[in-house]
Amino acid sequence: MSAPSGAGAVGGFPYKLIATDLDGTLLRGDHTVSQRTRDALAASVATGAAHIVVTGRSVPWTRHILDDLGYEGLAVCGQGAQVYHAGEHRLLTSVTLDRQLAALALAKIEAEVGPLSLAASRDGVDGDVLIGPGYEAQEGPLPYVPINDASELWSAPLNKVYVQHPRLGDDELWAVAHRVAGELVGVTMAGAGIVEILPLGLSKATGLSLAARRLGARRADTVAFGDMPNDVPMFGWAAHGVAMANAHDELKAVADEMTLSNEEDGIAVVLERMLRG
Asked: What pLDDT shows up at residue 5?
């Protein structure tokens, strides 16, 4: 499923660029991609369209999935912070978080809700994810480095900071963080227990627009698939946004279309229909 640069969609397929989120969208709960979805993407790419992964995961947490798919094109990682060339295993662009602004933003949030637990994603193709005291890391295959001193989070350039609160749910923490610190940093929610602090103005849409230009595609040429609020900007940029059945209500509210869940080959269902014309 490589992404050919500058190829126009032919054979009746209506879009030139297919943008897919990973978790909750392209990936099933076991972190795999079904054969039906692989086949539908391969058939779409065979018409001349390009498939581009657009994920909140940083490159180190995305590379193994792309390699397993045989994906050699561009990927947008880190909520738009990184444009990564999978075939060449190198970063083309990378945006880092202003650590001084991030620390001020976190201080403002903590003044409102009390102490937060923190984690952070370091910049680079091999950047570690650091997990601070009290932060509940999700079980699974993704590597991280536990630290005892939260000050270590700030010792090297970062793409993002993850925040958790002992009492507030994701939606409430996200809303409070945006309200009190949204003029300093970007705030998004990428999944259960994943509220993130980002460079101000950064989103999946900004990263996707950069990658699309490299591929010779425009927003009018793009169909996007997603499931979480961090996909809202991507839907706003793309010509057609498709929300999975398991999507967050905020994304469903702005979607052009609903499909089946990630466990039920929702991407494949839409692509197969489009391939039939």
From this structure: 35
